[in-house]
Design brief:
This protein is α+β, with helices and mostly antiparallel strands and 278 residues long. It has five helices and 18 strands. The strands form three sheets. The chain has a nine-stranded antiparallel sheet. The protein has a five-stranded antiparallel sheet with strand order 5-1-7-8-9. A four-stranded antiparallel sheet has the order 14-13-12-15. The protein starts with a strand and ends with a strand. The relative contact order is 0.17.
Length: 278
């Protein structure tokens, strides 16, 4: 069982830092699944009732070098449980690095060692090494960390600017513990909170519907106007916007009957965040 990878591209080092910081802000403990074609940060165990969950994949193309040997010829994966905040702090040290190397090591305990090379003002190269303790999960525990079941959404829209939404949700979270998210197939979306004394709603129009179904029935227009909604914890929604550091192509908002499914779309990274309905 071995793992070693290296990034030398400045853009990809920055992307990996963004992913690591995002994971550190959206999860406490996670499982890093190392496979032959990607790294995946997944929940540490089945989804707990009422808890939001993260699933993030970093594709192999980010790495200039990538070598791994799984636990066996048949099971070509490695499962490592780690504390996300420790990993995030280690990754931030690579902010001005010329290279970043990951390696599974065994020092005082199993570690995922992150080594970075930094160029000083004088032109000399210095190294920084961070040993992040991990727990190597035995095969019998792998079933406790399943991939999420991605169901077809009842509604899907591309979100407007994250900064705008963060400011709105932050204000709403101070008013109420829950926020209602609703959207339709005409590209309209509303965020609203309601208390005994006030009702506040923000409207967005002309958003893209990435998976808009065909509407060729007499009731097509009426169905497209119908708002599909889900009520979620406002603090968990705010946590997503505060924690998301990746610069995506777009962010999808998928409304399900029992959850809000947020998807960060990027060429080399895929991040899913599930907030259960309240």
């Amino acid at each position: 069982m071995r793992f070693r990878a290296k990034i030398t591209s400045k853009d990809f080092i920055e992307l990996f830092i963004q992913v690591s910081v995002t994971v550190g802000r959206l999860a406490k403990v996670c499982v890093l699944r190392v496979s032959e074609d990607k790294l995946c940060f997944s929940p540490a165990g089945p989804m707990a009732t009422g808890e939001a969950q993260l699933w993030c994949e970093v594709r192999r193309g980010v790495f200039g070098q990538f070598h791994m040997q799984g636990v066996s010829q048949e099971l070509r994966e490695i499962y490592l449980e780690l504390k996300a905040d420790l990993w995030s702090r280690a990754a931030r040290s690579a902010g001005k690095a010329t290279s970043l190397k990951l390696q599974l090591t065994n020092k005082h305990c199993p570690c995922l060692t992150l080594s970075v090379e930094l160029l000083s003002v004088s032109g000399s190269v210095r190294k920084a090494v961070h040993d992040v303790p991990v727990r190597v999960l035995p095969i019998r525990w792998w079933a406790e960390c399943p991939e999420p079941v991605i169901r077809a959404p009842e509604m899907s829209v591309c979100l407007p600017a994250s900064k705008t939404l963060k400011n709105i949700v932050e204000k709403m979270a101070h008013m109420s513990s829950h926020v209602l998210v609703e959207a339709n197939w005409h590209g309209s979306m509303n965020l609203s909170v309601e208390t005994d004394t006030v009702c506040v709603q923000s409207h967005f129009n002309h958003l893209e519907n990435p998976s808009k179904p065909a509407r060729d029935t007499p009731r097509g227009d009426e169905d497209a106007e119908r708002m599909v909604q889900v009520r979620v914890d406002s603090r968990k929604l705010l946590q997503f916007f505060e924690g998301q550091q990746i610069h995506p192509t777009s962010i999808l908002c998928n409304i399900l009957s029992n959850a809000l499914h947020l998807v960060v779309v990027h060429e080399n990274v895929s991040l899913h965040y599930f907030i259960p309905a309240a």
